[in-house]
Every structure is written in structure tokens, then in C-alpha cells.
Amino acid sequence: MDELKNKLRQFRFMNGEMTQQQLAKEVGVSRQTIIAIEKGKFNPSVRLALLIAKVFDVSIEEIFYMEEK
Questions:
Q1: DSSP string of 32-46?
Q2: pLDDT tens, position by position, 11-68
Q3: CB distance 38 to 9 below 8 Å
Q4: Around 51, how many Cα atoms within 13 Å sit in the side-chain half-sphere?
Q5: Strand pairing partners for 65?
Q6: Distance from C-alpha of 18 to C-alpha of 27, rounded to nearest angstrom
Q7: Which of 1, 25, 34, 43 is deepest in the core (most CB within 10 A)?
Q8: Each residue of 19-36: b (16+ CB within 10 Å) or e?
Q9: Is-above-0.90 flag for pTM?
């Protein structure tokens, strides 16, 4: 089964080393949610994925992708 992966941490660092807290505030979730997404323990809703992509001004696919197990 394919697994949802992300480059969220990489995008935070490429954007002025944005903290998890700063990103969480931008998209209206807790820092714990951002941590869980980065670790692959939580898959964001489509709405949240869109909001995150909007913060970095990129497409969802640039941050989130499927990887074969």
C-alpha cells in the first residue's frame, strides 16, 4: 500500500526557517498537529493540505506525495 509522505520540514527551512509554531498559527492548527504531519503520523485533511501549500505558494504535490512501500 502506498504511503503519504511530505517535505514539510524542508519547506519550513527553505522559507526563513519557519518554526512549527509559526506554520501552525498560519493554518489554524496546533503545533502538535504539524509535528504529527511531519513525522507521518497524521495525514492532513484536503483543506489543511491546501492551506499549507498556500502558505508556501506551491502546489500540494510539491509538499505531499505518495511513496510505494
A1: HHHHHHHTTS-PPPH
A2: 999 999 999 999 999 999 999 999 999 999 999 999 999 999 999 999 999 999 999 8
A3: yes
A4: 13
A5: 5
A6: 13
A7: 34
A8: ebeebbeebebeeebbee
A9: yes
4 φ, ψ to 5°? Answer: -80, 125
Cβ-based neighbour number of residue 9 at 10 Å: 14
Q: Which residue has the cell 519550513?
A: 12
End-to-end CA distance of the chain: 6
Sign of CA dihedral 18, 20, 21, 25: positive
Cα–Cα–Cα angle for 55, 60, 61, rounded to 5 degrees = 140
d(CA 45, CA 50): 9
3-state DSSP assignment of residue 6: strand
